Amino acid sequence: MTVTPPRLEIDRIIDDRRTRIIVCCGSGGVGKTTTAAAIGLRAAERGRQVCVLTVDPARRLAQSMGLTSLDNTPRRIEGVALDSGGSLHAMMLDMKRTFDEIVEAHSDPARAAQILANPFYQSLSSSFAGTQEYMAMEKLGQLRRSDEWDLIVVDTPPSRSALDFLDAPERLGRFLDGRLIRVLTAPVKAGRPFGKVLNAGFSVMTGALTRVLGGQLLRDAQTFITAFDTMFGGFRERADATYRLLQAPGTAFLVVAAPEQDALREAAYFVERLGAERMPLAGLILNRVHVTPASGLSAARALAAAETLEAATQEALSRAEPAQDDEGTSPGQPGTMLAVAALRLHAERVTLGEREQRVAAAFTSAHPAVPVVEIPALPEDVHDLEGLRRLAALPVSR
Amino acid sequence: MNGLGKNPRMTARDTDWDGVRLHVVTGKGGTGKTTVAAALALALAGSGRKVLLIEVEGRQGIARLFDLPPLPYEERKIAIGQGGNGHAGAPAGDVYALAIDAEGALLDYLQMFYGMRSAGRALTRMGMVDFASAIAPGLSDVLVTGKATEATRRRAGGGYAYDAVVMDAPPTGRIGRFLNVTSEVSDLAKVGPIRSHADSVANVIRSPQTAVHFVATLEEMPVQETLDGVAELRAIKGIQVGGVFINMARPGLLAARGPAQPADKEAPGEPALPGDGGALPDGDGEVAAQIALALKEAGLADSGQLAAGLAAELREHAALMALQDRARAELAGAGQPLYELPLITEGIDLAALYRLAAELRDQGAA
Q1: What ipTM did this prediction achieve?
Q2: Secondary structure of residue B342 in the 3-state scheme
Q3: How far is CA B150 from CA A42, A127, A204, B324, in A?
Q4: How far, in Å, CA of A2 to CA of B35, rounded?
Q5: Which of A60, B17, B211, B339 pairs as cysteine with B242 (C-beta 3.0–4.6 A)?
Q6: pLDDT in tens, A185-220
Q7: Which residues of A are less than 8 Å from B193 in CB distance?
């Protein structure tokens, strides 16, 4: 009934020198950042020159690498086993700084200053929606072009949907080329005061815009867009170049998901989308799966056994009215209570594990060719290199 | 402090958030924010009260949770609330739901303030919403929060149209910006219609009528993000930080023994169990041996190997409980009321939502 998907061999991916970029994607809260860090560490300790790029503003990677802060430049991570000749760097994306640098690189100083001071630019460059994804792509392109690392591991932004990572640059580009921009910039370009534009349709539109946004806001937007205009083409080109980089054979997408319905639904969308975009999907990492070391015992049998023991205990207690300090093998002794608790705990864990497997089966049935690896849930949080090392060594197969 | 350990309220319903009419629910991704928001809405909708549950991120999470087709930009009834006070005959309330998207909110705004819906449609076609969300997300946030505050303030028949509004808000990492509408917009719009709209929205959000609740799980990162988020919101003048809702807590072993045995009817001389403040007997081998003996008694074959597995599970469980205790203590450090919801092993369905709603009522959150 259940489909057994091929096993995802992460080691094979990181040991393959042709793999130059690994993108970890998935919805929020599935352990993406930690997974990316663990893969980066493992690759470094297996001889790769690795840079981990994280775009998460919560600085979680920094914590999990034992660093107090990460900035826009790759920092060497200490404590990595270097016998194999590898190395590990990590950096956190400073979205605004990356954006500023692009502006400065693509316009003369006067124009750059004008853009950097514009309130719209400041809003755009420090907001999360879209810009972060765009700048992550930009930074990835820069790191790749620098050729200082032979493997870059990217942790995608914590967007509401895994797809935002792919869509945001495109959306930004579409917007920059859009009709609204033309409407907004037309009057400025024509050198006329706003509102007295060519045809009636335009003036209805601009009138509406003025009423809704207010004149000042509109003028700021126009100034910004005009100043930015010359750079638009460059932006588009760079986004396209990074997009092609992601489609290249040296890239491996790893979709990370927790064994929960929402996360796996997102994962399924993402897998389908990667296929449509011809981007190289390596497989699915099913993170935080509940496994049991006593797999031979079903939930039903565990519960039945617990009830049997409880009934026997009750009976023994009602027979022995005064407390009896007998240390024999009679029911009611500490071991019995311990066993009852353990059996009930086990039943719960098995039930949870079975639900997770059902949810996962829905994914694997629809995508039987996607390699999958499961990583068991840990009782402890991962917050140091040792934890990351253990995590990377954990993948289990059933 | 209110919250944990509070006795069920069987009489007059005074809750921790009397006077709050807009409940904003945020939390780190993956903590079950939407589930908690929905349970809170059900809990608030007792005794004939009418509650609106809003989602703002276009995920259709509410529809999925309640097993409904995708919700339109329209307020519609999706469930009846939790019956009042646990009495079978007490009247339940109604839960309505609304999925707000920036586009619908823009059309609404234009219609409501300027009576120009068709111009709005033209703007939408031209990419006005792309414009707002790409270049100035603050603008689309104002439109979205504006719709939520409008529903909160809306009057009907001499009272409010809704007794309470619950918003499934953006995640913790974005909540400060999302709610701090005035400052997000003020850099862009110093005067003008958007600015005055933002100011009126801020008046509601920064009033005692609004509380911002955090959903967290008992894990390190969600705890840290919650504490950071609470600190961030406290720094914004006028915003009331609400409760911290611990979600998906794994129960201790006492609870694992089933609901039929309240703690005060325990057998005398019962050993303390791991995760309930006690320690496991010395040594894994000892635990496994004791369990193996009992398993044999219960008639389970291969009791030795099973017992070793079960002992390992007990040990992991004890570690998990210790971790949860630490996380709980850290969350308590936020100084806000704590509520705790259990992990529902079978998954969240409508019955589970009502169960969580009952927990929230018992703990005084609603």
Answers
A1: 0.80
A2: strand
A3: 52, 25, 28, 39
A4: 29
A5: B211
A6: 665 444 444 444 445 556 666 676 777 667 777 777
A7: 211-214
Say if residues A281 and A22 touch (Cβ distance below 8 Å).
no
pLDDT in tens, A171-184: 666 666 666 666 66
The pLDDT of residue B82? 77
Task: Tell me whether residues A344 and B257 touch, CB distance under 8 A.
Answer: yes
What is the C-alpha to C-alpha distance for residues A191 and A183, in angstroms, rounded to an integer?
A: 13
The verdict on a CB contact (< 8 Å) between B271 and A329 is: no
pLDDT, position B230: 97
Burial readout A132-143 (b: 16 or more C-beta within 10 A, e: otherwise):
bbbbbbbbbbeb
Pairing of strands B338-342, B241-249: parallel
Give the integer Cα–Cα distance in Å for A289 and A244: 34
Contact between A205 and B122 (Cβ < 8 Å): yes
Q: Do the Cβ atoms of A38 and A373 come closer than 8 Å?
A: no
Inter-chain touch B308–A348, beta carbons under 8 Å: no
Q: How far is C-alpha B307 from the geometric centre of its chain's CA atoms?
A: 39
Give the pLDDT of residue A203: 65
List, for residues B267-312, the tens digit of each pLDDT value. Answer: 433 444 544 444 455 566 788 888 998 998 888 877 788 899 999 9
Element at B178 (helix H, strand E):
helix B172-179
Which residues does A85 contact at the CB level (< 8 Å), separation at least 6?
A47
Nearest CB neighbour to A57, from listed B173, B253, B287: B173
* Whether residue A280 has pLDDT greater than 80: yes
Pick from B61, B271, B313: CB nearest A337: B271
Tokens matching residue B88: 């079978």
Sign of the C-alpha dihedral, residues B30, B34, B38, B40? positive
**Is B238 within 8 Å of chain A by CB?**
no
Contact B192, A213 (CB under 8 A): yes
Per-residue model confidence as pLDDT tens digits over A115-138: 888 887 887 787 655 677 778 888
Q: What is the pLDDT of residues A301-343, one digit of tens each?
A: 999 999 999 998 888 878 765 544 444 445 556 788 889 999 9
Question: What is the reported pLDDT for B163?
Answer: 96
* Single-letter code of the amino acid located at A60: R
Quick one: angle between helices A261-276 and A334-366, nearest 10?
A: 30
Low-confidence ranges of chain B (pLDDT < 50): 1-11, 255-272, 274-279
φ, ψ of residue B78 in degrees (nearest 5):
-120, -15
Q: What is the DSSP letter of B170?
A: P
Residue B301's pLDDT is: 78
Q: Name every chain A residue with its beta carbon within 8 A of the beta carbon of B347.
A: 261, 355
Of B116, B224, B267, the CB nearest to A317: B267
pLDDT value of residue A44: 95
pLDDT for residue A193: 45
Question: In 10 A of CB A25, how many CB atoms?
Answer: 27
Can you tell me whether residue B12 is helix, strand or coil?
coil
